[in-house]
Design a protein that fits this description.
Elements lengths: L4 H18 L13 E5 L2 H4 L5 H4 L16 H6 L17 H15 L3 E5 L2 H4 L1 E4 L5 H16 L3 E7 L5 H7 L6 H17 L5 E6 L1 H10 L23 H28 L2 E7 L2 E4 L4 H24 L4 H7 L8 H7 L5 E5 L3 E6 L17 E4 L1 E2 L2 E2 L2 E2 L6 E2 L1 H14 L5 E6 L11 H19 L4 E7 L18 E3 L6 E3 L1 H11 L2 H6 L11 E4 L4 E4 L1
Parallel strand pairs: 1-2, 1-16, 2-4, 4-5, 5-6, 6-8, 7-9, 8-15, 15-16
Antiparallel strand pairs: 9-10, 11-12, 13-14, 17-18, 19-20
The structure holds beta-D-galactopyranose.
Beta-D-galactopyranose binds next to loops.
C-alpha cells in the first residue's frame, strides 16, 4: 500500500532514530582511511537499449541505440520460456540516457566509488569481426568523466555475463579458445580508451556463476546443459563447464598480461577479477562433511583463483575430475601467478555442505562435476539464516568474515574488495529496514575480518538501484533506490538514506570522498620480470 507523504516522513524519522542508535555499532571509522565505499551495477542489468524488432534479425548485423550490437542476453531473453516472467533488458533502467542523474544520485549518497560494467557489444558490435563503435566509446568516456567530476572512482568490469552474439554464432563463445583473442582485443580497446582515468579493472564478473548457469544448468545463455542438471536442447553438463572455465581463465590471463605489460606501467592502475565467493560449512561435525565443505569451496572458488594466484588448478578439483581437467603450459602457469592485483569478492551465499562420496545424495551432488557435494541452506529443516527473496541466499553475516578469512589464508592476504553484497526482496516498497540491518551486519563482519588483519580495501553494495535480475527479471529488487519501471523514476529507499548517513556522518567521510579518488589507493607495486604486480 502506498504511504501518504506524512506517513512516509514519520517512518523516515523512526528509521533515522534507529540509525543514530545503531551508529555506535558500525561506523565508517571502523574502516581504514582511503577505504572505498560504493555501489555496483552492470551494463545489461541497468543500461542496455536494444530495439526489440531488430533482435530477431540480429544476424544481419542489426544494431540498436547508440550503435550497440546485439548480445547474447538480447537474444536469450527474447526466446519464450527462458525468463519466466517474460522480462528482458531491452530498456532496463534506461541508465544510458540518464547516467548524469544517476551519477548525481550516487554523489548525493556520498560514495567515493562506483562499479559498473562495459557492454562489449556497445564497444564492438561484432566483436573483433567488425568496427569499433565510436558512440560506445563516447558513452563510457562521458560516464567516466562525470564520475570523476563528482569525486567518484570508476571501477570497471570488462565482462559481466554479456558478449556480442556474433561470437556465440561464429564459434560457440566460451567453448572455443578463439574467444581468448576476442576478449583480449576488447580489453585492450578499453585500457587504451579509458585507462588514463579508470584505475581499477575487473576482467570478468563471476566466471564461476556464468559457467554454472550457462553450461551446467542451462539457465543463462547459451542455455547449454544435459540431464539431470537441466533441460536443454544442446550441451553436456559433465564436460562443457570444464572447457568454458579453462577459456575464461585464459581470457583473463591474456587481458591481464596486455594490461600489465603495455598499460599498467604508464597508467598506474590495478587489475583483478570479481568472483562469486560463497562460504560452505560442514552439514555435520564429521570428517566427511568437513572434506565436503573443503571440496565445495574448491569447486566454487579455488577452481578459478588457484590458477590465477598459484598457477594451477586445485588438487581438490583435480582429484574429482582427473584427466578431464585441461593442463596449463609452463609459460601459462608462470604468467597466471602474476595475473591479479586484487580479488573482487561478490558475496551473497553461505550454505551447508554434505558429503556425497560416502553417503547417498538423492537431491543432487552425486556427480564429479559437482565435487561430490550436496549443498543446502537448511539442516534438519532449519534455515542457516533468515530467508531473502532468492531461495539460496540467506542472511549469514559471519559467512562474509569466514570467506574473507579463507581467501586471506589461501592467497597470502592478497588485496581484496567486496565488489558485491546485497539483499533482494520481491516487495515494491521503499521501507526496507531489513536491507539496512543486512548491510549493517555484513559491514560489522567485514570490519571484524579487517581487524583480524585481512587486506580488504572496499565495499560495494549491490545495487545502486533495482534492475534486471537475470532469470528473475524485474520482480527481484536489490536496489538502494526503488525504480518505477513505467516512469523510470528512482526513489531512495530507507536503506539509501541509511547508507548516506553511514557514509557522511563522521568527519573522515568528507576527507575520503576526495576530488581525486584514484590517488587514494595505497597498493605497493613492485616490478618483476616483464610485468608489474602488487604486494602489500
Ligand atoms: C551476482 C551478479 C549480479 C547480480 C547479483 C544479485 O551473481 O554478479 O549481476 O545479479 O548476483 O543476484
Amino acid at each position: 500500500m502506498e504511504k501518504t507523504p506524512i506517513q512516509f516522513f514519520i517512518s523516515l524519522i523512526i528509521v533515522l532514530g534507529r540509525v543514530v542508535i545503531c551508529h555506535t555499532e558500525i561506523s565508517r571509522s571502523d574502516f581504514p582511511d582511503g577505504f572505498f565505499f560504493g555501489t555496483s551495477t552492470s551494463a545489461y542489468q541497468a543500461c542496455v537499449l536494444t530495439v526489440l524488432s531488430l533482435v530477431s534479425r540480429w544476424i544481419e548485423g542489426a544494431v540498436s541505440e547508440g550503435g550497440k550490437g546485439v548480445n547474447n542476453w538480447d537474444v536469450f531473453t527474447h526466446i519464450q520460456g527462458n525468463i519466466a516472467s517474460g522480462d528482458n533488458g531491452d530498456v532496463a533502467d534506461n541508465h544510458y540516457h540518464v547516467y548524469k542523474d544517476d551519477v548525481e544520485m550516487m554523489h548525493s549518497l556520498g560514495v567515493n566509488s562506483y562499479r559498473f560494467s562495459i557492454s562489449w557489444a556497445r564497444i564492438l558490435p561484432r566483436g573483433r569481426f567488425g568496427d569499433i563503435n565510436p558512440y560506445g566509446i563516447e558513452f563510457y568516456n562521458n560516464l567516466i568523466d562525470e564520475l570523476l567530476l563528482k569525486g567518484i572512482a570508476p571501477f570497471a568490469t570488462l565482462n559481466h555475463f554479456d558478449i556480442p552474439q556474433e561470437l556465440e554464432e561464429r564459434y560457440g563463445s566460451w567453448l572455443s579458445s578463439l574467444i581468448q583473442d576476442d576478449f583480449a582485443y576488447f580489453a585492450e580497446i578499453c585500457f587504451r580508451s579509458f585507462g588514463d582515468r579508470v584505475k581499477y579493472w575487473m576482467t570478468i564478473n563471476e566466471p564461476n556463476v556464468y559457467v554454472k548457469f550457462g553450461y551446467l544448468k542451462g539457465q543463462y545463455p547459451p542455455g547449454r546443459c544435459s540431464s539431470p542438471f537441466g533441460n536443454c536442447t544442446y550441451g553436456d553438463s559433465e564436460t562443457e563447464p570444464i572447457i568454458a572455465t579453462h577459456n575464461l581463465i585464459l581470457s583473463h590471463l591474456k587481458a591481464s598480461s596486455i594490461y600489465k605489460i603495455r598499460y599498467q606501467p604508464k597508467q598506474g592502475g590495478y587489475i583483478g577479477i570479481a568472483l562469486n565467493c560463497p562460504m560452505y560449512i560442514p552439514m555435520t561435525d564429521t570428517e566427511m562433511d568437513r572434506q565436503a565443505a573443503k571440496r565445495a569451496m574448491a569447486f566454487d572458488v579455488a577452481w578459478y583463483l588457484d590458477p590465477l594466484m598459484l598457477g594451477d588448478y586445485p588438487s581438490e578439483v583435480r582429484n574429482c575430475l582427473g584427466n578431464q581437467l585441461p593442463k596449463f603450459s609452463k609459460a601459462e602457469m608462470n604468467m597466471l601467478k602474476d595475473s591479479l592485483d586484487f580479488i573482487g569478492v561478490n558475496h551473497y551465499i553461505t550454505l551447508y555442505a554434505k558429503d556425497c562420496i560416502h553417503s547417498a545424495c538423492d537431491l543432487g551432488g552425486s556427480h564429479a562435476i559437482e565435487g561430490f557435494v550436496y549443498t543446502s541452506g537448511e539442516r534438519n529443516g532449519i534455515p542457516i539464516g533468515e530467508r531473502t527473496g532468492i531461495s539460496r541466499f540467506f542472511v549469514v553475516p559471519d559467512g562474509l568474515e569466514k570467506i574473507i578469512g579463507y581467501l586471506k589464508a589461501r592467497y597470502n592476504n592478497k588485496p581484496m574488495f567486496v565488489t558485491e553484497n546485497g539483499i533482494s526482496s520481491l516487495d515494491q516498497t521503499t521501507e526496507d529496514s531489513k536491507r539496512i540491518e543486512y548491510h549493517k551486519s555484513y559491514l560489522a563482519a567485514l570490519a571484524q575480518a579487517i581487524r583480524e588483519g585481512a587486506d580488504v580495501r572496499g565495499y560495494f553494495v549491490w545495487s545502486l538501484m533495482d534492475n534486471f535480475e537475470w532469470i528473475y527479471g524485474y520482480s527481484m529488487r536489490f536496489g538502494l533506490h526503488h525504480v518505477d519501471y513505467h516512469t523510470m523514476k528512482r526513489t531512495p529507499r530507507l536503506s539509501a538514506i541509511w547508507y548516506k548517513n553511514f557514509l557522511t556522518n563522521d568527519i573522515q567521510t568528507d576527507q575520503s570522498v576526495s576530488k581525486n579518488p584514484t590517488k587514494d589507493h595505497n597498493f605497493h607495486v613492485t616490478k618483476t620480470n616483464a610485468t608489474l604486480s602488487s604486494s602489500f
